[in-house]
Amino acid sequence: SYTDSRMVGFRDNVCCPNCNFLLTSLIIIHPLGKCTIYFVPEL
Questions:
Q1: What is the pLDDT at residue 35?
Q2: pTM for the full predicted model
Q3: Which of 6, 7, 16, 34 is most exposed, with minimal Cβ within 10 Å?
Q4: How many CB atoms lie within 10 A of CB 15?
């Protein structure tokens, strides 16, 4: 198992690295117009 965390762009209340991310991702929104997406392993 692994966790890949990274800062990505944020717009229209949507975290948008490439405007497509895993459904298993946990999205953490930060107040400074950024957000972190944690990619979690599929079960």
A1: 59
A2: 0.23
A3: 6
A4: 20
- Whether 2 and 41 have beta carbons less than 8 Å apart is answered as yes
- Are 10 and 33 spatial neighbours (Cβ–Cβ below 8 Å)? yes
The partner residues of 15 in beta bridges, in order of sequence, read 10
Q: What is the pLDDT of residue 27?
A: 58
The DSSP result for the chain, as a single string, is: ---EEEEE-EETTEE-SSS---TTPEEEEETTTEEEEEE----
Name 37's Cβ contacts closer than 8 Å, sequence gap at least 6.
5, 6, 8, 15, 17, 21, 25, 26, 27, 28
